[in-house]
Write a structure and sequence with these properties.
The chain contains one helix and two strands, in the order αββ. The protein is mostly beta strands. The protein is globular and about 40 Å long. The mean pLDDT is about 80.
Length: about 80
Amino acid sequence: MKPERYMIFNYITSEFEGDLLADHKEGKAEWIHINALDSIPMQDSYRRRIPLFFDDGVFEIHTRWKEDRQYDEYIKRT
């Protein structure tokens, strides 16, 4: 059986025009002020990514899940 693979894309911006999608199947989209990020609930895997947004360049995170919900994580920066 081929391992499952999925991708998550995160974006950060300082300017935006238009409206966020309402009632999307992935959940409610909302703008969060940067100073409020520490106080909102989110999965640990998302919280670990936040500092990477403020480094120069781009990044990819490769995660390989093992037994008992343990994982190996590799961060590739370009």
